[in-house]
Structure formats: C-alpha cells, structure tokens
C-alpha cells in the first residue's frame, strides 16, 4: 500500500517552467542585434524638424553616404541599453509575478495587477536604462551630423565616460523623465499585454504553449505598445539628442514638436512599428525558448489546484 500511495502522488504532480530573472535582458539584447538598423532609421526620422526623408529613402541615404555597416552604428549602446533597461523591467515583472502567484502557480494575475506591476517595473527600467539610452540615440544620430559636429564615441562605455567627464553626471540623465514615462507605457503595452494576450489565446482550443502562440501574442502586444509609446518616444529622442541649450525644458521641446502638427508626435510611426514588431516578436520568442528549455522547474499538485 505505501508504494501505491507514492505512485498516486507522483501522478498528481505536473511540472511548469518559469523564467529566470535575467532571461528578459538576454532575449532583448539578442533581438536588438537583428532590429538595430530599423531602430537607427527611426531615430533619424524622429530628429528631423522638417520632413526630408521617408524610411526607405533615409536607409538609402545612410548606406550611400556611410556604407552598409553604418546601419549598425551604436550597436554596443543598444545592447548596453537592453542589458540595463530591459533586464530591469523584465526581471522585476517576472520575479514579483512569480512571488505573487507562488501559492497557486496555475492561477494568472488579474489584468489590472499585471498593468500595475508592469508600470512599476517599467519606471525602474526607464530610469536605470536612461544613460545607455541617451548614448544609443547619440551614436545612432552621429552619422547624420557634419564631420566637425560628431561626437565619435568609440563604444557605449566610452560615450558614458565622456558624457560624465565633459558634461557632468546629470547629463547622463538628459531626457530621463521622458524615457521613464515611455518605459512605463512600453512595459504595459509589451509585457503586461503580451501576458494577457497569451493567457487569452491559451484558453481557446486553437493555441498551445508553443511558438505560434508566442508569435501571435507578441505581434498584438507590439502594435499596442507602438500606439502607446510613439509620442513619448519622439520627445525622448529629441531631448536626448539635443545639444546643450537647444531646449529650455520639456515644455519647450513639446511646443517645438507641436508646431509640426498632431502627426509630429507620430513621426516615424511606420518604421517604429516595423522596428518594434520584430523586436517584440524576437524578444518574446527568445524569452519563451529560454524559459521552456532553461527555466526554473515548478512542481504543481493537480489535486490542490482542483480543490
């Protein structure tokens, strides 16, 4: 009888894999290696005061004047940004979510709790990642400037050191307030909505926990994230790329952008979505593959969940 009881208990358990806190940073850094040229084109479009180039013509302009490798200008800063910004927001979101559902891992959080958790994680990520984000914007925009006005950072850490040394510590956080607001909206649109879309899809009989579901949920989240973040993304890019004294404050930048009309805040929307959709898809596909293959194994008692 004791053997039979043990046998029954084993069959009452099944396993679930949860992601580790650093998976989001690794997945985001991997994704940016593929999407960096799109991000660079987006930055160039957003920093135009007058629209001279569209996405395709901007890409041709960059390649013709600087060469094909110029599309990867600032890649080190982009990776540095993901390993600070995305590592923080994914790490906080996943860690706190797993802690909140520890008593019943199969029961998802209510949507409003996901949104609140994503907002908090995004705010922390935006603040932590602001210095690398600023260097990323500057390095990407450098090739558009005249040779005597370029900053010519060798890599991300060179840029961070030179800003600290010549412009002061506070300059590392130029545009940090806008970056934080954007990070809150981005994390809500990306992480919490991905989580919710995935949950909804898995309740149907058409989807399983596989790459098809991950792809579908991520492209839906990517579109929502672009809608939420594009106005703040334009403002953040302008503030971070501005030389000292160009804008008196945030409101001055807002007013200057508003002169372009309402669509000035959605400048570069198509390339932003074209860039964010693959970034979101690749991030969550990489994240889910890391989770399914290397995640923490959780043992779940089926009888306990049923009761």
From TrEMBL:
Domain of life: Eukaryota
Any one biological process term the GO annotation gives: transmembrane transport
Gene Ontology CC, one term: membrane
Taxonomic lineage from the root: Eukaryota, Metazoa, Echinodermata, Eleutherozoa, Asterozoa
Gene3D superfamilies (alphabetical): Mitochondrial carrier domain
Organism for this UniProt entry: Acanthaster planci
TM spans (from-to): none
Pfam family, any one: Mito_carr
Protein name: Mitochondrial dicarboxylate carrier-like
Subcellular location as annotated: Membrane
UniProt key word Nucleotidyltransferase: no
Family classification: Belongs to the mitochondrial carrier (TC 2.A.29) family.
Annotated keywords: Membrane, Repeat, Transmembrane, Transmembrane helix, Transport
Positions annotated as Solcar repeat: 19-99, 109-200, 209-293
Membrane topology designation: Multi-pass membrane protein
Major subcellular location class: membrane
InterPro entries: MCP, MCP_dom_sf, MCP_transmembrane, Mito_Metabolite_Transporter
SUPFAM superfamilies: Mitochondrial carrier
């Amino acid at each position: 009888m004791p053997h039979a009881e043990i046998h029954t208990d084993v069959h009452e358990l099944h396993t679930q894999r949860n992601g580790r806190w650093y998976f989001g940073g690794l997945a985001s850094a991997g994704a940016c290696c593929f999407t960096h040229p799109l991000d660079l084109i987006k930055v160039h479009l957003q920093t135009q005061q007058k629209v001279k180039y569209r996405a395709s013509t901007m890409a041709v302009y960059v390649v013709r004047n600087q060469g094909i490798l110029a599309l990867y200008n600032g890649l080190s800063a982009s990776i540095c940004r993901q390993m600070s910004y995305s590592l923080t927001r994914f790490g906080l979101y996943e860690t706190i979510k797993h802690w909140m559902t520890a008593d019943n891992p199969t029961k998802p959080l209510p949507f409003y709790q996901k949104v609140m958790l994503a907002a908090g994680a995004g705010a922390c990520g935006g603040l932590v990642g602001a210095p690398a984000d600023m260097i990323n914007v500057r390095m990407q925009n450098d090739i558009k400037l005249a040779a005597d006005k370029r900053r010519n950072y060798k890599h991300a850490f060179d840029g961070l050191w030179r800003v600290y040394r010549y412009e002061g510590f506070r300059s590392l956080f130029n545009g940090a307030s806008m970056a934080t607001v954007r990070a809150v909206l981005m994390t809500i649109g990306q992480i919490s909505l991905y989580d919710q879309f995935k949950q909804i899809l898995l309740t149907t009989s058409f989807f399983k926990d596989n790459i098809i579901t991950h792809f579908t949920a991520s492209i839906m989240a990517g579109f929502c994230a672009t809608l939420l973040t594009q106005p703040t993304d334009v403002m953040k890019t302008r503030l971070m790329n501005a030389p000292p004294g160009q804008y008196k404050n945030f409101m001055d930048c807002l007013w200057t952008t508003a002169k372009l009309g309402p669509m000035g805040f959605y400048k570069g929307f198509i390339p932003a979505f074209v860039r964010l959709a693959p970034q979101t898809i690749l991030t969550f596909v990489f994240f889910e593959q890391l989770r399914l293959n290397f995640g923490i194994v959780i043992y779940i008692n089926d009888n306990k969940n049923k009761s």
